[in-house]
Write a structure and sequence with these properties.
InterPro entries: WH_DNA-bd_sf
Order of helices and strands: HEHHEEHH
Largest sheet: 3 strands, antiparallel
CATH superfamily of one domain: Winged helix-like DNA-binding domain superfamily/Winged helix DNA-binding domain
Number of strands: 3
Shape: rod-shaped
Oligomer: single chain
Number of helices: 5
CATH architecture of one domain: Orthogonal Bundle
Distance between the termini: 67 Å
Protein name: Transcriptional regulator
Length: 117
């Protein structure tokens, strides 16, 4: 894309986003520019704080990037983040048998010792 189309593309994208949330391919269809060029320009505009994106589940699997006008909202960004819950346990389970390698090292029979937490 040549530099002479950049101001027109920026204006066309902003006009398209005034209608509300839109995916990159929808913006591309409205503006008439290629999806690749629109995606590149949207990423640049996100860095300037003009637009922001939210990830949403796609109909075909995976996620789709949905764009809107304005800077990002931190609360929404954190709520949409991929959070994995990790169970942290401070109590070890009681073992019925001692590790055979440890028993062999210390010479104790493996079946007679009980290790408790």
């Amino acid at each position: 894309m040549s530099r002479r189309f950049q101001p027109q593309m920026r204006a066309a994208i902003l006009v398209a986003l005034e209608a509300g949330y839109q995916r990159t391919d929808e913006i591309s269809a409205v503006t008439g520019f290629s999806t690749k060029d629109v995606s590149t320009r949207l990423c640049y505009m996100r860095g300037l704080g003009l637009v922001n994106a939210v990830r949403a589940p796609s109909a075909h699997g995976g996620t789709a990037c949905i764009w809107r006008l304005g800077p990002s909202d931190l609360d929404e960004t954190y709520s949409q983040a991929d959070e994995r819950q990790v169970v942290i346990s401070s109590k070890y389970p009681t073992l019925g048998l001692r590790d055979p390698l440890v028993a062999a090292l210390f010479g104790a029979p493996a079946a007679t010792l009980m290790v408790t937490a």
